[in-house]
């Protein structure tokens, strides 16, 4: 699943299409895609894992789910796009294996921008306040809660918890105040590092525990389990990541 930093990179890659008019719309989506014809793109925005195309009277939301992808000015010859947007001079943006839907209200009303860890409007104090309001929540679930940390996905979750030495089955309410602040701060810090590494095509080289077998601190086997209500893969060290419960 693309995480928030990857969506920010997509937003940057399609900047040349701002101001362009959509001349062709195809794909196997069930939405009323004809609405997009002859629409002028006013801006591209991102909120967490949502890629947003702002048009004069409405917006289009693209969510890449678990296996979504995109191609700019090329296609996948072996796959039918969920949505393909064509422009003059044969240029196009193709979206695959994703969810698309219209947003009728203004985006500033539809989204809480403060919750996006990559946004200039990110508010760590509000994140802390909302975290403290759900003390029984496991930290592995809290980090994946898009109302708290929009854009954080499984990779960021695993790496952040390892960095701050917190076991994924710890509860929010059991974390000392300092650790809770570290959780919030590191979620944003790592997201921006992820963004830089992704642009340089070196992201995987920087993973410490995600998909790894050995703890780089303790040199013992890492644990792998599907934890929390999300049942997503967690990679963690039983020795150096403390269980707060």
Task: Please provide a brief summary of the model.
By secondary structure, the protein is of the alpha+beta class. It has helices at 4-13, 107-110, 124-132, 139-142, 154-163, 177-199; strands spanning 24-26, 43-47, 50-54, 59-63, 69-72, 83-86, 92-96, 99-103, 223-227, 232-236.
Describe this structure in words.
- This protein has 245 residues and is α+β, with helices and mostly antiparallel strands.
- The protein folds into two domains: 4-110, N-terminal domain of MutM-like DNA repair proteins (Alpha-Beta Barrel); 113-236, Helicase, Ruva Protein, domain 3 (Orthogonal Bundle).
- It contains six helices and ten strands, in the order H-E-E-E-E-E-E-E-E-H-H-H-H-H-E-E.
- The strands form three sheets. It has a four-stranded antiparallel beta sheet, with no helix packed on it. The chain has a four-stranded antiparallel beta sheet with strand order 2-3-4-8, covered by helices on one side. Strands 9-10 form a two-stranded antiparallel ribbon.
- Helix 5 (154-163) packs across helix 6 (177-199).
- The chain starts with a helix and ends in a 9-residue tail after the last strand.
Secondary structure topology:
Blueprint: H1 4-13, E1 24-26, E2 43-47, E3 50-54, E4 59-63, E5 69-72, E6 83-86, E7 92-96, E8 99-103, H2 107-110, H3 124-132, H4 139-142, H5 154-163, H6 177-199, E9 223-227, E10 232-236
Antiparallel strand pairs: 1-6, 2-3, 3-4, 4-8, 5-7, 6-7, 9-10
Helix pairs in contact: 1-6, 3-6, 5-6
């Amino acid at each position: 699943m693309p995480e928030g930093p990857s969506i920010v990179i997509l937003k940057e890659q399609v900047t040349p299409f701002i101001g362009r008019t959509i001349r062709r719309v195809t794909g196997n989506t069930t939405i009323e895609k004809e609405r997009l014809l002859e629409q002028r793109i006013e801006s591209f925005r991102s909120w967490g894992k949502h890629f947003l195309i702002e048009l004069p009277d409405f917006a289009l939301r693209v969510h890449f789910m678990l296996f979504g992808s995109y191609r700019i000015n090329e296609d996948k010859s072996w796959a039918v796009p969920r949505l393909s947007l064509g422009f003059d001079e044969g240029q196009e943006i193709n979206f695959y294996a994703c969810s698309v839907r219209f947003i009728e209200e203004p985006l500033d009303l539809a989204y809480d921008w403060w919750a996006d860890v990559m946004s200039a409007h990110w508010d760590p104090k509000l994140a802390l306040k909302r975290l403290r309001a759900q003390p029984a929540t496991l930290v592995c679930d809290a980090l994946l809660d898009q109302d708290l940390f929009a854009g954080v996905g499984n990779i960021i979750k695993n790496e952040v918890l390892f960095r701050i030495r917190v076991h994924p089955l710890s509860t929010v309410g059991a974390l000392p105040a300092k650790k809770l602040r570290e959780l919030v701060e590191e979620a944003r810090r790592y997201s921006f590092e992820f963004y830089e590494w992704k642009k340089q095509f070196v992201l995987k080289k920087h993973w410490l525990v995600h998909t790894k077998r050995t703890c780089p601190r303790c040199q013992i086997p890492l644990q792998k389990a599907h934890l929390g209500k999300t049942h997503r893969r967690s990679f963690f060290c039983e020795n150096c990541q403390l269980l707060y419960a």
